[in-house]
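Handout for the seminar on molecular recognition.
Each group receives one record of this type.
Step one: identify the two inputs.
Step two: read the structure output and locate the region that could contact S-adenosylmethionine.
Step three: write two sentences on what you found, then compare them with the reference statements printed after the record.
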Amino acid sequence: MADFHKPSTISITCPKMISPFLKKEVEDLGFTVQHQRYAGVELKGSLHDCMKLNLCLSTAHRVHYLLKTFTANNADELHKELVTIPWEDYIDKHGYVSITSFIKNKTINNTQFANLKVKDAIVDRIREKTGSRPDSGSDLNKTVVFLFWKGTEASIYLDTSGESISRRGYRVRNHTAPMQETLASTIIQASKWKVGQHFINPMCGSGTLAIEAALMALGRPAGLLRPNYGIKHILGFDVGEWNSLRSDLKHSANKDFKGKIIATDIDNRAIKAAQKNAQTAGVDHLIEFHRCDFQDTPIPEGDGVVVFNPPYGERIGHDQELYDLYKTIGDFFKQECSGKWGYVFTGNFDLAKKVGLRTSQRIELYNSTIECRLLEYELY
Ligand SMILES: C[S@@+](CC[C@H](N)C(=O)[O-])C[C@H]1O[C@@H](n2cnc3c(N)ncnc32)[C@H](O)[C@@H]1O
């Protein structure tokens, strides 16, 4: 059985440009980050630590626990190294394993082939030691093993998340172009919003930003919403420790908060989807929803932020309607939102200029592969 308290390297992945936010989150949990990469961070810790990281991180994608680093010139050498790992200690001989990988090796032009080699090594080893073998396939809801192989340097990890942490499980209904939960959480953390202040989200779509803000305001880790993680399928997983960690996190969350969270959208289907998602996340009673044009969004007195993720279209500079929309957002900021911080998250820099106000910050982020900016405006 795996020793859940044995220290090793933990490598946490996240979307591009988000690692400074991930680093802060990891450090706020009391860990020391040893390396910050373009799309992830590294630290020392145990499988037990991975439990907390999975439940508490809102900007991460996956938490990988290192089993071994080695040199491999080709697939045969990879297999030779991998059969020396005591897989029978980690994976149930009657269980199920899935392999994922990141590969840049000149002898491999097909990641499926490398994944197959990893699976073969795991299965060969377990069969030799126990007489039985686990099933394998592409389902990420059971044990997941991750191979990182660049040049001749390879590292093999247990993927303690399985499905990306971004999939919190509350988004049961999607509206137009919903943003990843990880990105929504990063936008909020990059903004000047503080818990206790108002969070206003016109053009809310499926409600991701408002829901993430409500979870943050309660201090309730989004990871608590999801029942399954890769770590639960690793031999030695202690369900008692897991439940007690979950219960501590649940009890340290607040029941309520000051400041309003308001989400509006012109499309009734968006409001219905956002309400349903908020209900699934258990925060629907904390968000005020309105179906209205963004210009009719109620803006309460007091400190807070107004965050827009407007449509930005596929073709740059071709859509007059979008130009007008962005110009009207600028007017709305000026006329209705004084005293607040305004934000526009967009992937179209041409349209962004139409807001017509001076930015106090332009933060580079990615929406999947699209380069975007979070534009910040101080609204006097
Ligand atoms: C890019 S989507 C927002 C996605 C959202 N961040 C999410 O995670 O689901 C843009 C939203 O703006 C809404 N919208 C477009 N024009 C609007 C207007 N004039 N007033 C209010 N909402 C509008 C659309 O209905 C759509 O839901």
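Reference statements: The chain has two domains: 8-159, 181-220+258-378. Residues 175-179, 202-203, 205-206, 208-209, 265-267, 270, 293-294, 309-311 surround S-adenosylmethionine (CB under 6 Å).
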